[in-house]
Amino acid sequence: MATLIAPAFAQNTATPKIDARQERQEMRIEQGVNSGQLTAKETANLDKREAKIESDKMKAEADGKVTRKERVHLNRELDHTSNKIYRKKHNARTAG
Fold it and tell me: Which pTM was predicted?
């Protein structure tokens, strides 16, 4: 009986779109570091934002269900971070 409950539990907390967005944003940050578009300080700031999103996602999943309101909040955080990544990669600052 426990095996029937586990998949149902996993479905309620699944966040595949949010996970995919996080992965793409992390790749964008990594690309910016490799190309020199991001300074160490910019990278640290973006990594801190990514860690906050992950923490918020874990909190949302903790009760076994990610609500629509929690998904909206996470997507807004991801939108804001995505804009920050773009602005930091396209400003005049470059890594040494």
Answer: 0.82
